[in-house]
Amino acid sequence: MTQTPHISVQHLNVHIGAQHILKDININIPDKKVTSIIGPSGCGKTTLLKSFNRLWDNTADVKITGKVLVDNEDIYAPNAEVTHIRKKMGLLSQRPYPLPMSIYDNVAYGPRIHGIRKKQVLDELVEEQLKATGLWNEVKDRLNASATRLSIGQQQRLCLARGLAVGPEIILGDESTSALDPVSTAIIEDLFISLKEKYSIVLVTHILRQARRVSDYIIFVYMGKIIEFGPTEEVLLNPKEELTKEYVKGYIS
Amino acid sequence: MNFRLLKDKILSKLMLVFTLASVSLLVIIGIGLYYKSIPIIHRLSWGELITSSIWKPLKGLFGFFPFIMGTLWVTAIAIIIALPLCLLTALYIVEYAPVRVKRILTPFVNLLSGIPPVIFGVWGVLFIIPLIQIYIAPHFVEFSTGYSVLAGGIVLAVMIFPLIVSIISEVLRTIPQELKDASLSLGATKWETIKKVILRKALPGIIAAAVLAISRAFGETIAVLMVCGNNAVVPHSVFDPGYPLPALIANNYGEMLSIPLYDSALMFAALLLFIIILLFNIISRVILARLERKLAA
Questions:
Q1: B186, B189, B296 ranked by CB distance to A110: nearest
Q2: At the fourth CATH level, which superfamily is domain A31-54+79-249?
Q3: Among candidates B215, B189, B119, B211, which has minimal Cα distance to B158?
């Protein structure tokens, strides 16, 4: 890869309890591209994704060694500040989890935490992000209604807007469409494609069709190891490794 | 008819009967207390019984206002002390404590609920009373024996502590990790997440815990009567003695029944306590339902 990587993972090992979940992971996530992590259930996809923004910090029994460099800064270094790291990344989880507050407050939550108090600035930010996720026209008349009143597809877009509002550089998606209907899924997928102009995007998915449609690069993970990494078409249509071939054909899942 | 289906039907009916039986117990107790209170209600009116502060059974004067106020003071002090402490304890146990600490702390908290009330009473007399009399009260009032509604409140607070902590902990545990992660991944600190997301989500549960604890506190008898002075006057400060309704009943039932209407007066005290707890529960249920609707809206 010629361009500079946005996230660089070096010798990452993750143990949860006695289990060795991720084994010596080395990978460079390209800047301003969509990279999909694929692999069978339980292979460590989500573990890898969550280690990018240190979401394991609060879980007992998790031991992490190795380096994850974001913008050449090791996020696991002793002096790394976790809130600063997380602000750089928006996370979109499997199911939408709107915060227990209004639509407006959900989007304004992050900016407020990071010190933005002026109503006018917040108003603009909320409008901008709701427009970016295509939600503005659907909710502009009920910004003060509870976010839980939205449909699940709308909630997921709200969660995306909420993540974008803190001005991240990276978007992490953890099977973000698995709870959505086909129409909402298509909307989210299109959003990912359009958002890669400004953000580096890393997705975990088990839907190969989605990986093919959305991503530029694919990482295939199996049993806690990276088996293959490369441009989407190459990995899916012309895999080098036997395991990848079998997975893509559907022999292992 | 199929035997298995019949069995199912019979069992469900049986359970209905038992449920109704236990629910009707509440009604029966209420009616029983009212029936026993009729003599005194006929002599003196409801209004007089509730609002009068004069308690002179020998002269036939039964004013329950001091006892009602005594009950309210002690319970209010207990919940004001206990709720913040319990909330922070539960937050620590669920959100902050390492697994090992959690394993040690939880049984300790539960152990507190297994200690008999009379031991809390003795502890109050030996420890809390001198503490108030010698160290706390002199800063605020000229004289206090230490036997006061404050002492009752403190002892009661310790007694309802395990109940509130365990309910709030349960409520906090039901909040999905993904919701916390959503807040954390936006760069919020743990405390910001607790304050703005977790507590907000848990608010109805926290109120429900407080309601349950207050209902229990209203009726707590032995430990409270040992430390709160049992003086039939309306308390005007936390250092004044008080005389809660359960203490009145426990102290006097079975004695002095030769005094006319005394028996009926004590039954009326029980009826009052019953009504206070009932009203309190109804009102807090209404508030809770409104709050849940508001949070969902």
A1: B186
A2: P-loop containing nucleotide triphosphate hydrolases (3.40.50.300)
A3: B119
